[in-house]
Write a structure and sequence with these properties.
serine protease, EC 3.4.21.107, 27 strands, six-stranded antiparallel beta barrel, alpha+beta, hydrolase, PDZ_sf, elongated, Pdz3 Domain
């Protein structure tokens, strides 16, 4: 075979190999090839250009006590000619403040966005402007306007500002529907990270419904779009240029972006913004109950097939349902037609409901589903009541006191009559009733559940108990029914209720 023949054979072999590789790639499973949404642009330049004008930088200043001393931060030593010299000179200039009154000016930077160009309404995070003496809004065209505070909400970390737009043409953006966002959808963040205004970053929705324990209504959108310090209060846009989130928090060991940022969903934020604009404060619905999660053990004790809903641990005296419509021990499954999958769903759904609205609530009471109608109060009016500041947050009493009987030992607990002697010994409030726990055996089932002497058993399996004999009888009855767990409602010394389950086998 000539050299030319060998070369042609080699070429045929290479081409065949390439063809085989191509066929193999085509035949590979579809998940190997990423797919992109039809509305995802090849470039986000046009989208960003139309939105940059609505995103603002927010600078605040406040006078605080001087920080000279051990906790003071010294000015860093920079190399001669460093480009950061002017920045640090401005930052540390006059840090000692007014020596006469011991005050000093502290400045901070954040982000925000305009939602009403005619009225000059700007939305940001509460923590961006908290305790500020002076707030300025800086626009992308170089204009700086003084801002006044319309209202804030610490629970969702939302604040609304107002500037005077007279003589200036502002650009506004609108809220979109965050409930339509799916994991994997493209999003864009625009803000003021580290003072670098007009910074655009792009990523996807990494997760939804995140609870980061920052407040009672946590329901964050998680994104990998780069969010850093200074992005707080800035918008997270969908591909249509609508605000579907307010960037508010990051997880970062270093202080910079590691691709885990969190945004308040527009579904939650828009309602808060509307209330702040209308009233200058929030007006949330209030049910007037204390709740706890429904665990597998509790679900089994209540005869529920699955662990879901919110368990009512107590009813606030003087609250909206202090008329018996909802009782301690009820499990709330639906509120105003919305499913309550877990405990944390209920506060958010209730808060989003208008004050005074009559709603249907689906509950499980003693193993039976039923619907009750309740009229909501106002959370802000009930917070003092719920916290006990007026001394009236005792839960409804369960059962009447019975004649004195001997103590009993059950499930690792020693229980006795709740009388004047035991009330005084354990400092139990006069309006708490039931059977007092006088001792808990170490390493017992009760000890594992954190039960302490001085707590009072008010119910077992949703039946009131008033004597040690009642406790023994209820436990015996549950065992005869083949139950593996006993559901106890316990009252603290001050009357606050909680549910625990104890294994009986």
């Amino acid at each position: 075979m000539t050299s030319n023949t060998l070369l042609r054979a080699a070429r045929r072999t290479l081409i065949a190999g390439a063809a085989a590789l191509l066929v193999s790639a085509v035949a590979a499973p579809s998940f190997m090839t990423p797919t992109f949404a039809a509305d995802a642009p090849a470039s986000v330049a046009d989208l960003a250009q139309g939105l940059l004008g609505a995103v603002v930088n927010i600078s605040t200043s406040q006078t605080v006590k001087g920080t000279e001393g051990p906790g003071a931060v010294p000015m860093p030593q920079l190399p001669e000619g460093s480009p950061f010299q002017d920045f640090f000179d401005d930052f540390f200039k006059n840090r000692g403040g007014d020596k006469d009154n011991g005050g000093q000016k502290v400045q901070s930077l954040g982000s925000g966005f305009v939602i009403d160009a005619e009225q000059g309404i700007v939305v940001t995070n509460n923590h961006v402007i908290a305790d500020a003496d002076d707030i300025e809004v800086n626009f992308s065209d170089g204009i700086t306007l003084k801002a006044t505070l319309v209202g804030t909400d610490t629970k969702t970390d939302v604040a609304v500002l107002k500037v005077d737009p007279k003589g200036h043409k502002l650009t506004a953006v609108k809220f979109g529907d965050s409930t339509k966002m799916r994991v994997g959808d493209w999003v864009m963040a625009i803000g003021n990270p580290f003072g670098l205004g007009g910074t655009v970053t792009v990523g996807i929705v990494s997760a939804r419904n995140r609870d980061i324990n920052s407040g009672p209504y946590d329901d964050f959108i998680q994104t990998d779009a780069a969010i850093n310090r200074g992005n707080s209060g800035g918008p997270l846009f969908n591909s249509a240029g609508e605000v579907i989130g307010i960037n508010t928090a990051i997880i970062s060991p270093s202080g910079g972006s590691i691709g885990i940022g969190f945004s308040i969903p527009s579904q939650l934020a828009s309602g808060v913004v509307d209330q702040l604009r209308q009233f200058g404060e929030t007006r949330r619905g209030w049910l007037g109950v204390r709740i706890q999660p429904v665990t597998d053990d509790i679900a089994e004790s209540l005869g529920m097939a699955t662990a879901k809903g919110a368990l009512v641990a107590g009813v606030i005296k003087g609250g909206p349902v202090d008329n018996g419509t909802i009782q301690a021990g009820d499990v709330i499954l639906k509120f105003d037609g919305k499913d309550i999958h877990e405990m944390r769903d209920l506060p958010r759904v209730v808060a989003e409901s208008p004050v005074g609205k009559a709603v249907d609530v689906l509950i499980v009471r003693k193993g039976v589903e039923q619907t009750v109608k309740v009229t909501l109060g106002r959370l802000e009016d009930g917070e003092k009541l719920a916290s006990g500041e007026d001394g009236s947050n005792t839960d409804k009493d369960k059962g009447d006191k019975a004649p004195a009987v001997s103590t009993a030992s059950v499930l690792g607990m020693t229980v006795g009559e709740l009388n004047d002697e035991t009330r005084k010994k354990f400092s139990i409030a006069a309006d708490v009733s039931g059977v007092v726990i006088t001792d808990v055996t170490k390493d017992s089932a009760a000890a594992e559940r954190g039960i302490q002497p001085g707590e009072v058993i008010t119910e077992i399996a949703q039946e009131s108990v008033a004597t040690p004999k009642d406790v023994m009888d209820r436990i015996g009855a549950l065992k005869e029914q083949g139950r593996k767990n006993a559901l106890l409602m316990l009252a603290s010394k001050t009357g606050e209720l909680r549910f625990v389950t104890i294994r009986m086998d």
